[in-house]
Design brief:
Elements: E1 4-10, H1 14-25, E2 32-38, H2 45-52, E3 57-60, H3 66-74, E4 82-86, E5 90-91, H4 97-102, E6 109-118, E7 133-135, E8 141-143, E9 146-147, E10 150-151, E11 162-163, E12 171-175, H5 176-181, H6 194-204, E13 208-219, H7 230-247, H8 250-273, H9 277-294, H10 315-321, H11 338-341
Parallel strand pairs: 1-2, 1-4, 2-3, 6-13
Antiparallel strand pairs: 4-12, 5-13, 6-12, 7-8, 9-10, 11-13
């Protein structure tokens, strides 16, 4: 049984820790440590943990290092062979870790997530990860159980354990050796999209990413940035563009960038038409800042392993123009490989 280190990044989230950390402490996994990475909280988080849960390791950062750097800084202080990055607003049942750890019996697996359900409605998939994530040809993420803002009820339709393109950072277990070899989370991302970028880089290194729905976790969501926040939109657009530049060959990236410009311009126009001026401005700022960052990244070099997004069509077109609202509605011919759509061993 490998040792598991659960790492929880928090910033002024004492109330969330008081509510959700007890479920993590009640996990029945026999070799578990919990590390809380405190991003310079001013709400008494560290003092409360020292008094209420002295067995929890607390790493106090000098500043708010956000999600990516906050986790990276905590990893050297964790002792597990498996690292579990868990949001501070996630509740887990006692047996959640066993099925996730079992997935690593396959030596080719680097990362795995549980089935992620809404905390307030456990019969509904949760936005951040549902039952495993994918990318379309233009870098837009979606999951088994969620296309854009449409969340499916969980009726067991995605209960097969299988390879996915990315696993949610809300509850992500990673093989430590693979995480460190990949360089950890890209700290320039700050927050949002960093787990997708990590999973893409792991696959480029030859690893597999999985979902194990025999394990469940219940996510409150929106604790850092609420859905619909212009700042969330900014991070998602900026980091998504940089991620594409990092992981696609340069010629493919240039083609995708031209299409993304049109898609994101349409999204900004749609936000303006709906009176969401801050959201439209966030998209424009994201593009401005992404250009500078893109110039500093190195795309895959000739001869390096290339991994392309598994859905070769536009999920934007499928959803907004063709009315496809469920993962199962996406056409089979849209997938590069039938194994991405259907269950595989």
């Amino acid at each position: 049984m490998p040792r598991v280190s659960v790492i929880v990044v928090t910033w002024n989230g004492r109330g969330l820790l008081e509510r959700f950390l007890p479920s993590v402490l009640a996990s029945d996994y026999p070799d578990l440590e919990i590390v809380v990475a405190d991003n310079a909280s001013t709400d008494g988080t560290a003092e409360w943990l020292a008094e209420a849960h002295p067995d929890v390791t607390v790493m106090r950062h000098a500043e708010n290092a956000l999600f990516a750097r906050g986790n990276n800084l905590a990893v050297p202080h964790a002792t597990g062979d498996l690292l579990c990055f868990l949001n501070n607003d996630v509740e887990v049942p006692a047996g959640w870790l066993g099925p996730l750890v079992a997935a690593f019996d396959n030596p080719g697996v680097a990362a795995v997530q549980p089935k992620l359900l809404q905390h307030g409605d456990r019969g509904q998939f949760e936005y951040a990860g549902a039952s495993g994530g994918f990318l379309d040809a233009f870098g837009y993420p979606f999951t088994r159980g969620r296309l854009f803002d449409t969340l499916e009820p969980d009726r067991g339709q995605y209960d097969d354990a299988r390879d996915v393109f990315w696993a949610t950072g809300a509850a992500l277990v990673v093989r430590r050796a693979a995480f460190e070899a990949a360089g950890g989370f890209d700290e320039s991302f700050g927050m949002h999209m960093e787990e997708i970028d990590l999973c893409w880089r792991l696959q480029r290194a030859g690893w597999r990413v999985r979902v194990e729905p025999a394990s469940e976790a219940y996510h409150l969501g929106g604790a850092s940035l609420p859905q619909g926040s212009p700042r969330k939109m900014y991070f998602n657009v900026r980091n998504g563009l940089v991620m594409l530049a990092k992981n696609l060959p340069a010629p493919a990236f240039r083609r995708v960038l031209a299409a993304r410009r049109a898609f994101d311009a349409a999204a900004a126009a749609r936000a303006l038409a709906a009176g969401r001026r801050d959201e439209a401005a966030a998209i424009r700022r994201a593009w401005r800042d992404a250009r500078e960052r893109i110039n500093a990244v190195t795309p895959p070099r000739p001869g390096e392993r290339v991994v392309l997004p598994p859905y070769r069509r536009s999920v934007v077109v499928d959803y907004f123009l063709r009315g496809r609202r469920r993962f199962s509605d996406l056409p089979e011919e849209g997938w590069r490989d039938a194994g991405w759509r259907d269950a595989e061993e």
